[in-house]
Design a protein that fits this description.
By secondary structure, this protein is of the alpha+beta class. It has one domain: START domain (Alpha-D-Glucose-1,6-Bisphosphate, Chain A, domain 4, 2-Layer Sandwich). Helix content is about 20%, strand content about 40%. The protein is built from five helices and eight strands; from the N terminus they run E-H-H-E-E-E-E-E-H-E-H-H-E. It has helices at about 15-20, 25, 115-120, 140, 145-165, and strands spanning about 1-10, 35-40, 45-50, 55-70, 75-85, 90-100, 125-135, 180-185. Strands 1, 2, 3, 4, 5, 6, 7 and 8 form an eight-stranded mixed sheet that branches. Strand 5 (about 75-85) and strand 6 (about 90-100) form a beta hairpin. The longest helix is centred in the C-terminal third of the chain and has 23 residues, at about 145-165. The termini are far apart. Mean pLDDT is about 70; it is low at about 110-120 and about 170-210.
Length: about 210
C-alpha cells in the first residue's frame, strides 16, 4: 500500500531538518506513539496507538533510520510492528523529503500553531512523506482510504506540534496520548519523530512510553 502525505511549518529547512532528525528533541510532535527503548542512535523500539472511530489498535515494534542525506534533506526509515492484542502486523518503509520556499505575505504554513513564526522565518519548509506499507489484521480490513485519512490527520497535528516546538513554545507532547491518534481525534497528543512515518501505523514509534 503506497501512501503519501505532507506537512508545512514556518521555519528554515536546516532548522526543521535538525529537529526532525533529532529523536530526543522531536519526541512529542506526532500523536499516538511512544518510544520504549533506544537500541542505537538510529534504531528504537516502541508502542503506537492508532484510533479509527470506535476501533483502537496498539502495536509494539521497531523503527530504524536506514539512510540519511543531509545535503538534500532526505531520510528513509524502516519499521515493523505486531498488534499487542491480536495477530495483525504492520511493516514498511517511509521516505521523508524536505524542501523550502519563500513564505507568502500574510499566509501561515499548513498546520502552523504559533502565529509569529512566519514573520521571523520568512520561509516555509514542507515535508513530503512517501510510505510503502504492508498491513494484516484489523488495519488491513479498513482499506487504503481509511488509513490515508488517519495519516492526514496525524500529519496535521504533527505540523502544529512541530511549529510550536520550532517557535520555542515547547508545545508538543501534551495530554491525550492515551487516546491515540486517528479519525475523530484532533487533539494534540504524545508523539514521535520522522513525520508520521508508516502513515500513522508504524511511523509513529519515536516517543517515550512508561514501560508496562
Amino acid at each position: 500500500m503506497d501512501l503519501d502525505s505532507s506537512f508545512s511549518v514556518n521555519a528554515p529547512i536546516e532548522e526543521v531538518w535538525a529537529t526532525v532528525m533529532d529523536v530526543e528533541r522531536v519526541a512529542g510532535a506526532v500523536p499516538g506513539a511512544e518510544l520504549t527503548e533506544k537500541l542505537s542512535d538510529t534504531s528504537y523500539k516502541g508502542v503506537v496507538k492508532v484510533k479509527v472511530g470506535p476501533l483502537t489498535m496498539q502495536y509494539r515494534g521497531q523503527i530504524e533510520l536506514v539512510s540519511r542525506d543531509d545535503v538534500n534533506h532526505v531520510a528513509t526509515f524502516k519499521g515493523k510492528g505486531q498488534e499487542k492484542a491480536g495477530q495483525g502486523t504492520a511493516e514498511g518503509t517511509a521516505t521523508v523529503t524536505l524542501t523550502q520556499a519563500e513564505a507568502e505575505a500574510g499566509a501561515a504554513g499548513a498546520g502552523a500553531g504559533a502565529g509569529g513564526a512566519e514573520g521571523a522565518a520568512g520561509v516555509v519548509t514542507t515535508g513530503v512523506v512517501h510510505g510503502d506499507l504492508k498491513l494484516s489484521g484489523k488495519a488491513a480490513a479498513m482499506g487504503k482510504g481509511v488509513i490515508n485519512t488517519v495519516s492526514q490527520q496525524i500529519m496535521k497535528v504533527f505540523a502544529g506540534n512541530l511549529q510550536d516546538m520550532l517557535s520555542g513554545d515547547g508545545g508538543a507532547g501534551g495530554a491525550g496520548g492515551a487516546g491515540g491518534a486517528g479519525a475523530g481525534n484532533n487533539g494534540k497528543g504524545n508523539a514521535l519523530n520522522g513525520a508520521s512515518l508508516m502513515a500513522g501505523a508504524i511511523g509513529s514509534m519515536f516517543h517515550r512510553e512508561k514501560k508496562d
